[in-house]
Specification:
alpha/beta, three-stranded parallel sheet, 36% helix
Protein backbone atom coordinates (compact mmCIF):
# COMPACT_ATOMS: atom_id res chain seq x y z
CA UNK A 1 0.00 0.00 0.00
CA UNK A 2 1.22 3.50 -0.80
CA UNK A 3 2.08 5.79 2.11
CA UNK A 4 1.64 9.53 2.22
CA UNK A 5 2.48 12.25 4.76
CA UNK A 6 0.71 15.54 4.14
CA UNK A 7 2.23 18.57 5.87
CA UNK A 8 0.31 21.77 6.53
CA UNK A 9 1.40 25.03 8.10
CA UNK A 10 -1.59 27.25 7.25
CA UNK A 11 -3.61 28.40 10.22
CA UNK A 12 -7.13 29.68 10.76
CA UNK A 13 -6.40 32.99 9.04
CA UNK A 14 -7.01 31.27 5.69
CA UNK A 15 -9.74 28.64 6.25
CA UNK A 16 -9.78 27.40 2.67
CA UNK A 17 -6.03 26.82 2.52
CA UNK A 18 -6.05 25.30 6.02
CA UNK A 19 -8.79 22.84 5.02
CA UNK A 20 -7.34 21.64 1.71
CA UNK A 21 -4.73 19.23 3.17
CA UNK A 22 -7.36 17.62 5.41
CA UNK A 23 -9.76 17.35 2.47
CA UNK A 24 -7.07 15.71 0.32
CA UNK A 25 -6.24 13.28 3.12
CA UNK A 26 -9.84 12.28 3.84
CA UNK A 27 -11.57 12.51 0.48
CA UNK A 28 -8.58 11.66 -1.68
CA UNK A 29 -6.04 9.43 0.04
CA UNK A 30 -8.30 7.53 2.46
CA UNK A 31 -10.93 6.85 -0.20
CA UNK A 32 -8.18 5.66 -2.56
CA UNK A 33 -6.79 3.22 -0.01
CA UNK A 34 -3.60 5.18 0.63
CA UNK A 35 -2.09 5.00 4.13
CA UNK A 36 -2.00 8.70 5.02
CA UNK A 37 -0.97 10.83 8.00
CA UNK A 38 -1.06 14.59 8.60
CA UNK A 39 1.72 16.77 10.03
CA UNK A 40 0.71 20.14 11.47
CA UNK A 41 3.50 22.73 11.69
CA UNK A 42 3.60 26.35 12.82
CA UNK A 43 0.25 28.12 12.48
CA UNK A 44 -1.26 24.89 11.16
CA UNK A 45 -1.27 23.46 14.68
CA UNK A 46 -3.84 26.10 15.69
CA UNK A 47 -6.55 24.34 13.67
CA UNK A 48 -6.35 21.35 16.00
CA UNK A 49 -8.06 23.30 18.78
CA UNK A 50 -11.76 22.33 18.89
CA UNK A 51 -12.95 25.91 19.34
CA UNK A 52 -10.97 26.87 16.22
CA UNK A 53 -11.77 24.03 13.81
CA UNK A 54 -15.46 24.05 14.70
CA UNK A 55 -15.70 27.61 13.40
CA UNK A 56 -13.73 27.18 10.16
CA UNK A 57 -15.34 26.75 6.78
CA UNK A 58 -13.37 27.21 3.59
CA UNK A 59 -14.80 28.08 0.20
CA UNK A 60 -15.88 25.09 -1.90
CA UNK A 61 -14.68 22.56 0.65
CA UNK A 62 -16.35 20.69 3.53
CA UNK A 63 -16.42 22.38 6.93
CA UNK A 64 -13.30 21.77 9.00
CA UNK A 65 -15.41 20.14 11.75
CA UNK A 66 -16.70 17.57 9.23
CA UNK A 67 -13.19 16.89 7.95
CA UNK A 68 -11.86 16.41 11.50
CA UNK A 69 -14.72 14.02 12.32
CA UNK A 70 -14.04 11.98 9.19
CA UNK A 71 -10.30 11.84 9.89
CA UNK A 72 -10.97 10.70 13.46
CA UNK A 73 -13.35 8.02 12.21
CA UNK A 74 -10.73 6.83 9.71
CA UNK A 75 -8.13 6.85 12.52
CA UNK A 76 -5.71 9.08 10.60
CA UNK A 77 -2.51 9.85 12.51
CA UNK A 78 -1.66 13.46 13.32
CA UNK A 79 1.85 14.73 14.02
CA UNK A 80 2.37 18.14 15.65
Amino acid sequence: MAKLLITTSTGPGDPTRASVPLHIALNGAVKSGVDVALAFAGDGAEVLKPDVYKSLRGVGIPAMADLMAGLAQAKIRFYV
